[in-house]
Design brief:
Pfam families: ADH_N (PF08240), ADH_zinc_N (PF00107). The protein has helices at 38-45, 92-95, 136-156, 171-184, 195-203, 216-220, 237-246, 269-274, 287-298, 317-326; strands at 2-8, 11-16, 26-36, 54-55, 59-67, 79-82, 85-86, 106-107, 119-123, 127-129, 163-167, 187-191, 208-210, 227-232, 247-255, 278-281, 308-312, 333-337. The protein is an alpha/beta fold and 339 residues long. Strands 3, 5, 6, 9, 10, 17 and 18 form a seven-stranded mixed beta sheet that branches. The chain has a six-stranded parallel beta sheet with strand order 13-12-11-14-15-16, sandwiched between helices.
Length: 339
């Protein structure tokens, strides 16, 4: 089969590899669509280190081809999205359905062979059945590009009517804006230096947009005592400090963007304590959250028809990767199609 194999930093290729076989408790999935994410860029560049060699790809949907021994309740031919986090299965968090937070988790396309391939093997519990009216390319990006913001929103505890600041309006940030406005009912201030990104955020329901992060604290305090929550979707240490300064007393800063840089806050410790501010990390999503999002799409409450901004074939993976790396304002998510 064909697969995009990363052999080391900067060294990847579309290669012919042996077809995987499902082991006990596993299923073999024929991939129909797989997203290309900023995490793939970091892996290829070497700023994120995974296993070498590894088949890339962690945002996938397709059809079950076969089941390994001990798999029950899964029908061959069923369409499904794939949860990209494989937990140890034995810890407290795994028992609670929180494999993304398991200390011994593997991530598809990082720690084990992923789904940027014609076939992928995953544990049966990673399957999220897709309703017939949810296309595979939408099912694929649900698993990360949409579910990661949804998990972060859940962790923030925001509610209808809250004021929320979203710093960074790329694929993750744009879906954060959409979920906050359309599903939760929050008022949102979006922050991004790119005019096209700000325009798109307004189309998705943002109340206001700001080009310079340095100006957002004043916007958040216009007629209020600050934002109820702020989301850093970029991962810049400086933006975390900015996000904290946007908040009202007892506000929450949720960090979703990832960087290898050390965290250094310029804010005084006594300010964090006296204002009872919370700094919350958020990684990935749960199977239940992906299933919930699929239901929202199928029910017509969440329109993701404009979320796939580019479609490529496997032989054009390099072009798709560069499109993702460029962070063009009009690009939300690109996918590789295999069907």
């Amino acid at each position: 089969m064909r697969a995009v194999v990363l052999r080391g930093p900067g060294n990847y290729e579309l290669a012919d590899v042996l077809e995987p076989e499902p082991g006990p408790g596993e299923v073999l999935v024929a991939v129909e669509a797989c997203g290309v994410c900023g995490s793939d860029v970091h892996l290829v560049d070497g700023s994120t280190v995974g296993r070498y060699p590894v088949v890339l790809g962690h945002e996938a949907a397709g059809r079950v081809v076969s089941c390994g021994p001990g798999v029950h309740g899964v029908t061959e031919g069923v369409r499904a999205a794939v949860l990209p986090y494989v937990g140890c299965g034995a810890c407290r968090l795994c028992s609670l359905g929180q494999a993304q937070a398991c200390a011994r988790r593997d991530v598809l396309g990082v720690d084990r062979d992923g789904a940027q391939a014609e076939l992928v093997v995953v544990p049966a519990e990673c399957l999220v059945p897709l309703p017939d009216d949810v296309p595979s390319e939408i099912g694929a990006i649900l698993t990360d590009a949409v579910a990661t913001p949804w998990h972060a929103i859940r962790r923030s505890g925001v509610a209808a009517g809250d004021l929320v600041v979203v710093l960074g309006l790329g694929g993750l940030g744009m879906h954060t804006v959409q979920l906050l406005t359309e599903i939760v009912g929050c008022a949102v201030i979006g922050v991004d230096p790119r005019p096209e990104a700000r325009r798109r955020a307004l189309q998705l329901g943002a109340q206001a947009v700001v080009a310079d992060a340095a100006d957002v604290a004043a916007s958040a305090r216009d007629g209020r005592d600050g934002a109820d929550a702020a989301f850093d979707m970029v991962g810049s240490p400086g933006l975390i400090d900015t996000a904290l300064r946007c908040l009202r007393p007892q506000g929450r800063c949720v960090v979703v963007g990832i960087t290898p840089d050390r965290l250094h806050l310029r804010m005084r410790q006594e300010t964090v304590v006296a204002r009872e501010l919370s700094l919350i990390g958020s990684f990935g999503a749960t199977r239940a959250e992906i299933e919930e999002l699929a239901g929202l799409v199928a029910g017509g409450r969440l329109d993701l028809s404009h979320s796939v901004s580019g479609r490529f074939r496997p032989e054009d993976f390099g072009t798709a990767l560069e499109e993702t790396r460029a962070k063009r304002a009009g690009s939300v998510r690109v996918v590789i199609t295999y069907s």
